[in-house]
Write a structure and sequence with these properties.
231 residues, alpha/beta, 5-stranded parallel beta sheet, two-stranded antiparallel sheet, 7 strands, globular
Length: 231
């Protein structure tokens, strides 16, 4: 299967470099390019893409709002936002808007290709621990959850445990070792958690867990999951 990639960046040289790397792969091809958010949305309404590489800072319509509108349209395309600075607040906003991760513009070609393949396969384009460090910087500004039903009531005890480990930044291999499960079993549980909570990928699970206060902000690997009693 060929992965169809769309490029949205206001710098022509950046788009040319991305296109060269992507089109050199036997399993990928560039299906369109745009130099601002509005043009990207207009083209993506008629062009089918599997993965969109979306620059954050673009004229007319920035990448965060373009991502929000694209996801709201019901697209099946996955968005990876491109940013110059690690832990950029715009990158966090893009994750909340529905992006499947972010990638630094100085990433090596192999990292770019791995990110595209990862989100196409339903995984995250960045390590959940990186997302968690980003969230730790802005956790104080997250809205207080509205009173309502237990947010994890639909999950089984095992799924609840898996979610807490995902939210703390653990990989499938790390979760498997901690819970004495196979990686395949962990992957199955993660898929069920995402489906029950209506989340697109692991990055969205981390964001969701922060927004629902299932994890306590910390520093780096000090962030810890907060146990929520199951009813």
């Amino acid at each position: 299967m060929t992965i169809r990639v769309f490029l949205a960046d206001d710098q022509a040289l950046v788009r040319a470099g991305l296109a060269m790397v992507v089109d050199a792969q036997p399993d990928m091809r560039v299906v369109g390019e745009a130099d601002d958010g509005l043009d990207a949305l207009a083209q993506l309404a008629t062009v089918t893409a599997d993965v969109v590489l979306m620059d954050v800072r673009m004229p007319r319509l920035h990448g965060v709002e373009a991502t929000r509108r694209l996801i709201a349209s019901g697209t099946t395309a996955k968005v990876v936002v491109l940013t110059t600075f690690d832990l950029d607040e715009y990158a966090f906003a893009a994750l909340r808007a529905g992006a499947s991760g972010f990638l630094l513009k100085d990433a090596r070609p192999a990292e770019l290709l791995a990110a595209i393949r990862a989100v196409h396969d339903g995984d995250a384009a960045i390590a959940p621990s990186t997302t968690r460090r980003l969230l730790d910087l802005v956790a104080a500004d997250l809205p207080v959850p509205s009173p309502g039903p237990d947010p994890v009531a639909a999950l089984t005890g095992r799924e609840h445990d898996i979610l807490l480990h995902v939210a703390s930044g653990a990989s499938n291999a790390e979760i498997a070792a901690r819970l004495f499960l196979s990686e395949a079993t962990v992957k199955t549980h993660v898929g069920r958690v995402l489906a029950k909570l209506g989340l697109r990928d692991r990055v969205q699970a981390v964001v969701w867990s922060y927004e629902h206060r299932l994890v306590r902000p910390g520093r780096g690997d000090d962030a810890e999951p907060r146990q929520i009693p199951l009813r």
